[in-house]
């Protein structure tokens, strides 16, 4: 028969194992929550970045120098702009959504830039989202890291393959499938909320390769929406109706 002391020791041992397993599973070591600070990450960390909506010219200082929205010289806060902050898990494919029922990108200049970091600031090129004529709802954003530090953010386009031949879509600049803004709510019936598929590439701070980008490359357009059951009805079924 085990003594009380032995049972206690066993209990402590089991609790330690359980909490270790729990920590290993969900460990986040990144304490940086601001998109305007620098950090380095490892697989399983969460990472904060943001997307700013404004007119293209707001993202340039003195009409020529493309700066991060974190850079005070841009003075985005005094421009007509909106910022959304996200904190996805590193190396997990995520689908971010921006509900446009109470926020219309075309009212805020119609372009967006993804960004993070201060001294090591990275920002994407401005991407067209919407104006009075066209609305683009589907994007893929690649976050590229080197030794855990964000190097680059870029919008990955796959041409207009997924909408060619579909009269509900218009192919803009041979790169974006756009809906007519008049078919978007509230004028039309389509929920034109934005869906941004995230993918990670490069290496984390332990030189582990970030692979989610390779998985996204192999996913078919809109397939990710099917993984998010709460979005399936609001985003895919309407596309199914259109297709
Ligand atoms: C803005 O650009 C103009 C022309 O390129 C240049 O002469 C001027 O010095 C720049 N101003 C600042 C504040 O950098
Ligand atoms: C956006 O919000 C509206 C109102 O709350 C809701 O009806 C709609 O389903 C939402 N769309 C998405 C894509 O979540
Ligand atoms: C909307 O954007 C498209 C594509 O950039 C452009 O061709 C069109 O002229 C714009 N329409 C308006 C009303 O700004």
Automatic annotation (TrEMBL):
InterPro entries, per the entry: DPH3/4-like
Organism domain of life: Eukaryota
Keywords of the record: Signal
Keyword Mitochondrion: no
Signal peptide: 1-26
One of the GO BP terms on file: protein histidyl modification to diphthamide
GO cellular component: cytosol
Keyword Signal: yes
MF annotations from Gene Ontology: metal ion binding
Protein name: Expp1 protein
Organism: Salix dunnii
């Amino acid at each position: 028969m085990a003594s009380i002391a032995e049972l206690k020791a066993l209990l402590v041992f089991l609790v330690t194992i359980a909490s270790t397993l729990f920590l290993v599973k969900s460990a986040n070591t990144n304490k940086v929550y601001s998109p305007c600070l620098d950090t380095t990450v490892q697989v399983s960390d969460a990472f904060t970045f943001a997307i700013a909506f404004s007119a293209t010219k707001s993202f340039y200082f003195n009409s020529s120098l493309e700066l991060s929205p974190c850079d005070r010289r841009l003075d985005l806060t005094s421009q007509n702009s909106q910022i959304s902050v996200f904190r996805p898990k590193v190396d997990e494919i995520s689908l971010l959504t921006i509900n446009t029922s109470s926020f219309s990108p075309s009212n805020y200049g119609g372009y967006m830039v993804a960004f993070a970091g201060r001294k090591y600031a990275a920002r994407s090129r401005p991407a067209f989202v919407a104006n009075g004529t066209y609305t683009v709802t589907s994007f893929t954003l690649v976050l590229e890291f080197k030794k855990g530090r964000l190097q680059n953010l870029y919008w990955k386009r796959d041409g207009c393959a997924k909408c060619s031949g579909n009269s509900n879509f218009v192919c803009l600049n041979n790169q974006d499938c756009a809906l007519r803004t008049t078919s978007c709510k509230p004028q039309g019936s389509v929920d034109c909320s934005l869906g941004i598929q995230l993918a990670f590439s490069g290496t984390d701070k332990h030189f582990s390769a970030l692979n989610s980008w390779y998985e996204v490359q192999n996913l078919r357009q809109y397939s990710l929406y099917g993984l998010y059951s709460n979005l399936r009805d609001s985003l895919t079924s309407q596309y199914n109706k259109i297709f």
